[in-house]
């Protein structure tokens, strides 16, 4: 594409293709007078939502690969998910440059909105295998967000796709089956690597939860959340939620390798 040409209807431009004007018009501050850090607060949430969209796109494709017994295809995209997750964890630090005073200067304008209502975050949890109907209550009946989550609730999950694959390859879909897979790792390298990659995915979700609650404590201490929960103590409770408990439980059953 030639540089320096203005947008025109005939020739595609960078800004036209990416809708940059639309994108940069989406940061509408609620504070008045405008508080400097509210721009950062909005942009970082929007960036998270864009990455959530990409993660959903990848996870759907991974489920399809696994259902077709294409483990390597699934692994390739799981690696991409891990890299995105690393970015999600790392960018918490950007928000930590905001002091408690800076945040409290505009926090009241956010009530009662909260990250708790992030439908794409819940969709990722549901699609991965952590589907809990109680989370639907945050969304109005008949709303598009609720409809998407309801579809996900009964839909195929990454965990179910992994379990079915285990069974097709002669293992039970539980901690015992995973331990048995690890004992035969040399002969089942592909499936073993998939189990490890799913564990990486789970670990990164947990790391994000840990970083998020630490950031929350740093910025608002023990205050209740804008969404109405009791804040950091609620969030601490979510850190224990695991997508693949059987992969963790199997660690109790695995023995040391015998090396010749
Ligand atoms: C100043 C920064 C932030 C503060 C003080 C904060 C605070 C909180 C609190 C207190 C909750 C618990 C629910 C509630 O009562 O509101 C929560 C939940 C949540 N927040 Fe944040 N948050 C911040 C930034 C972010 C960012 C940047 C994201 C990225 C999307 C995010 C995503 C979430 C999600 C997904 C939940 C639901 C977690 C769950 O239920 O497992 N938060 N947040």
How is this structure best described in words?
By secondary structure, this protein is an all-alpha fold. The protein has a domain at 35-110 and 157-252: Methane Monooxygenase Hydroxylase, Chain G, domain 1, CATH 1.20.58. It is 58% helix and 0% strand. It contains 13 helices and no strands. The protein has helices at residues 14-18, 20-23, 38-67, 71-90, 92-95, 100-104, 119-128, 144-153, 158-168, 175-183, 189-220, 232-238, 245-249. Helix 7 runs parallel beside helix 8 (144-153). The longest helix is centred in the last third of the chain and has 32 residues, at 189-220. It is globular. The N and C termini lie far apart (59 Å). The mean pLDDT is 95. The chain binds protoporphyrin IX containing FE (HEM). The site of protoporphyrin IX containing FE (HEM) has 23 residues, from helix 3, helix 11 and helix 12.
Could you describe the largest sheet, including whether it forms a barrel? Answer: none
Q: What is the H/E order?
A: HHHHHHHHHHHHH
Q: Can you count the helices?
A: 13
**Beta-strand content estimate:** under 5%
**pLDDT under 50 segments (min length 5)?**
none
* Strand element count: 0
Structural class: mainly alpha
CATH architecture of the domain at 35-110 and 157-252: Up-down Bundle
User: What is the mean pLDDT?
Assistant: 95
Q: How far is the first residue's CA from the last residue's CA?
A: 59 Å
The global form is: globular
What is the gyration radius calculated from CA atoms? 22 Å
CATH-derived topology of the domain at 35-110 and 157-252: Methane Monooxygenase Hydroxylase, Chain G, domain 1
Helix proportion range: 55-70%
Bound molecules: protoporphyrin IX containing FE
CATH class of the domain at 35-110 and 157-252: Mainly Alpha
């Amino acid at each position: 594409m030639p540089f320096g040409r203005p947008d025109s209807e005939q020739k595609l431009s960078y800004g036209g293709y990416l809708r940059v004007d639309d994108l940069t018009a989406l940061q509408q501050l609620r504070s008045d007078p405008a508080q400097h850090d509210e721009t950062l607060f909005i942009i970082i949430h929007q960036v998270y939502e864009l990455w959530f969209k990409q993660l959903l796109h990848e996870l759907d494709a991974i489920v399809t690969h696994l259902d077709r017994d294409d483990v390597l295809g699934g692994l390739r995209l799981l690696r991409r998910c891990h890299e995105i997750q690393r970015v999600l964890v790392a960018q918490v630090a950007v928000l930590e440059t905001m002091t408690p005073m800076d945040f409290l200067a505009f926090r009241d304008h956010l009530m009662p909105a909260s990250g708790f209502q992030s439908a794409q975050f819940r969709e990722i949890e549901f699609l991965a295998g952590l589907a809990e109907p109680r989370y639907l209550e945050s969304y109005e009946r008949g709303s598009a967000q609720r409809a998407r989550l309801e579809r996900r609730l009964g839909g195929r999950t990454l965990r179910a796709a992994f379990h079915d694959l285990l069974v097709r390859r002669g293992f039970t879909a539980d901690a015992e089956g995973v331990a048995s897979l690890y004992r035969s790792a040399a002969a089942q390298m592909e499936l073993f690597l998939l189990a490890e990659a799913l564990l990486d995915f789970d670990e990164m979700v947990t790391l994000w939860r840990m970083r998020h609650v630490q950031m929350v404590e740093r910025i608002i201490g023990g205050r209740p959340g804008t969404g109405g929960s009791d804040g950091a103590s609620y969030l601490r409770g979510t850190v224990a939620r695991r997508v693949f408990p059987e992969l963790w439980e199997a660690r109790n059953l695995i023995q040391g390798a015998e090396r010749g």
